[in-house]
Amino acid sequence: MDTRTAHTPAPAGSPSSLVVVLGRTSGTGTGTLGGKAARLSELIEAGLPVPPAFCLTTGLFDLFLRETGLGAEIRAAEARDADPGTIRELITAGELPEPLARTILAAYADLGRPRVAVRSSACREDSAAQSFAGQHDTVLDVSGDQDLLAAVKVCWASLWSDRAAAYRDGTGPAGSIAVVVQEMIQADVSGVLFTVDPVGARPNRLVVEACCGLGEGLVSGRVSSDFFVVDDRTLEVIEEHVRYKVTKCAPLAPGRIGMTKVDAADRDAPCLTREQLGVLAGLAVEVREHYGTEQDIEWAMRDGTLHLLQARPVTTRPPDPAATDGERSPYLTRQSDAVRHGTLWSRMDIGEIFVGLMSPLGLSFAQYYQRNVHGDCAAALGVRDTGDVGLQMGFFQGHVYLNISYTAYLLGQCLPTRDQRHFTKRFVSEEVDLAAYRNPFGTFPGGMEDLLSTVHWVRATATEMVSMKHRAGEMAGSRLYEFDRARRLDLTRMSRRELDAELGRYLGFFHDAHVGYMPYYINAFGFYGVLTELCAKWLGADGENLQNRIKTDMSSLRTVASAQEVWGVARAAKARPRVLEIINESPLDEIEERLRRDPEGRAFWDAQVEPFLRANGTRGRQEMELTHPRWIDDPSYIFQMIRRYAADGISVDDIMGRSRARAEGDGRAVLEKLPPHQRKVLETVISMYSLCSELRETTRMSMITSIWLVRNVVYEVGRRLVAEGVLHSLDEVAFLEFEDVRSYLAGGATEREAFSRAELDERRRLHEYHNRLPEPPLTFVGEHDITLAVRPAADGTRLEGLGSSPGRIVGRARIVEDLVWQADEFQPGEVLVTRYTDASWTPLFAIAGAVVTDIGSMLSHSSIVSREFNVPSVVNTKHATQRINTGDMVVVDGDTGVVEVVEG
């Protein structure tokens, strides 16, 4: 571009004077360039590596409004408080006057006509007071004259985007906007760097998050990222957390950005070398010194060269370090020192649905459950005094914990758990030694209180034994009724009042489903405990793990049955070549539509997929977490497993048959050694455990479906909030508070009044902070100081965990971080290595050689299903996903609980 356009005054109204090359804008302020362009220009002038760019100034935008007459129309629309969408349409539909278009394209030609990123640069953007980050539009990977002109109008129109309007609500009119046209960096690695820890606030720490591909994947939260901390004095890396990275954001076709897979060799490797991190940190320190204030910097790397894409002041003040480091107890309210320091907390075996880190929405929904449901669940067990529900659960660094001490105290009212040890020992991992533990709540009062509680429990238990089969049948029927009803409804057509009534209905079903489920869960748990103790007492060594081998055939477990049913759908697809062709060759997100359009595919869908989804579709990973789609919402995982199963020759019936035959044979042989009366007692206990387990799995689907129903309403609210600009995207539903959603539906406040942008951003920051912390322990007493957590040695090759399913195999490891994207990669016989599993992972167990998890216990999902499929399993290794790489040859010993890498 001719440099004179940046320095030489042009005739009044001349478009050429209103386009400037960044880096040649001395004396030109944010009122002309907008915040983003002004700062990029300053960085270029300071000699920092910023991709070349030019700016269409606010004056050019104002000239466009004048010459097209749109300025008067927009002012009139703003005066009558018109919908922002109306203004956006006026701009995007308007024709660029020929002199303006010619000027823009001339600047593009002078840049060399590369592929470019077209970015909005509003006047108040990237200021010290408000960042406006993400409020205005960016169009990536633009090429060609017409596409460039269209992208410019999109950026101009985004001054009136719903989210920008919500962000500046009450702070004045929209003002004007500039646009940056910058050479597109097709990044190998991208990320953000904060020159101050935005959450922890510890000094001298530069915080770096890095992902494969374009940074948009990181900003939207759709990809995994590596986390680094660099000391700003020495530029040395002092902390590193490398995550397994499955997907990245990248150009899929000219002008089309989307998700694709990370190359296998890059998945468990750091995005940046320590040398590259040092260079990046040095640039960040230069930027901070240039501005004299802390900075939030976006960067990208291509072919080993670093580029700075944006820098803005850090507009939020980190919390007091003492407050952050002081989060050591799951209690939400102040307790006495004895209670605070003596409580036993556990997240072992609490229904699988609470496993793992939860979003702010998931945590707030769990708290709703605690306040409104959990106490009634205790009452359903025959507990007369259900105590203080606020003490029964706790929340620690994004995880849900059960207060074992208080629960054991309350269950002291019930005969089987009068001795608290019967309950407590089921929830303790090897991190905790119970020898010195004393319940700070003591034991439940004796005397008349004890007598009344015992009589109450006996009556409740007798009623439960009589009615449990009938109630399970009613729960199964009501589940299908509510499921079918929900699929017929169109929530998008409901008023807010109608949606509120629907949520009330679903929460009522949620309550009843959980209360109805709890007795089956606890009774199965109790009979399993009795079985364990009797086997140990009467059978000695012969009884070791017998209780795990004779828990009835696996078809009684709904989670295992779902894998069998997936296999059945795969066999049906394999019998229809046209159907299998569509499933194998279509993009995952297009399979459903293509099947429904094809006559043979539609018949297959109706005959096979619909019945499967009706029976299993409300399953998903981490089911109490509302942000995770269920199989019926996104059947991609099911299609992945159909591909995998259809390509494999092993029959799931054969696997199940072998497991069942082994269990039955072992059970009969051992039981025959017992005297008749002992054999009869054990057979009765086994029978009751089997019955309760079967009813538990049947009614569990009611519980899971009730959560899906609630999720549907929450996401309908989320869609409305996106439309109003309160949320940037549906991804931000994760940062809502469940009680805010309920209040909004029940009240008259507008969307912008009901949901605070500042609170959403604060929840996001806290969630990101929790996400980068080491995994908290399964169980601990009192408080846990995360700063004392010990990281594994970098060269360790041996892991000791809990052997939860017997057997010893050698196989290639595969780290699985994302089920949907990796199900098709998993090969039969490979060792599944992951952080944890829940019911949605079951279909992979049918083809796994072994299972290794970071967390878990003998009764966690991965352990139970591994035993049912006769697959060796080691759980609670703590660091397997960090110490083992995909492709490593590993030995998994499910008897000793040892996992060893024997060949890298």
Automatic annotation (TrEMBL):
Which species is this record about?
Answer: Streptomyces paludis
User: Which InterPro entries does the record match to this protein?
Assistant: ATP_grasp_subdomain_1 (IPR013815), PEP-util_enz_mobile_dom (IPR008279), PEP_Utilizing_Enz (IPR051549), Phosphohistidine_dom_sf (IPR036637), PPDK_AMP/ATP-bd (IPR002192)
User: Which first-to-last residue range defines the signal peptide?
Assistant: none
Q: Which GO terms describe its molecular function?
A: ATP binding; kinase activity
- Name the chain's protein: Phosphoenolpyruvate-utilizing enzyme
- What keywords are assigned to this protein? Pyruvate
List each copy of the PEP-utilising enzyme mobile domain by range: 826-897
Lineage of the species this protein comes from: Bacteria, Bacillati, Actinomycetota, Actinomycetes, Kitasatosporales
Taxonomic superkingdom: Bacteria
Q: Identify the residues that the record assigns to the Pyruvate phosphate dikinase AMP/ATP-binding domain, covering every copy.
A: 32-319
Against Gene3D superfamilies, the record matches this protein to: ATP-grasp fold, A domain, ATP-grasp fold, B domain, Phosphohistidine domain
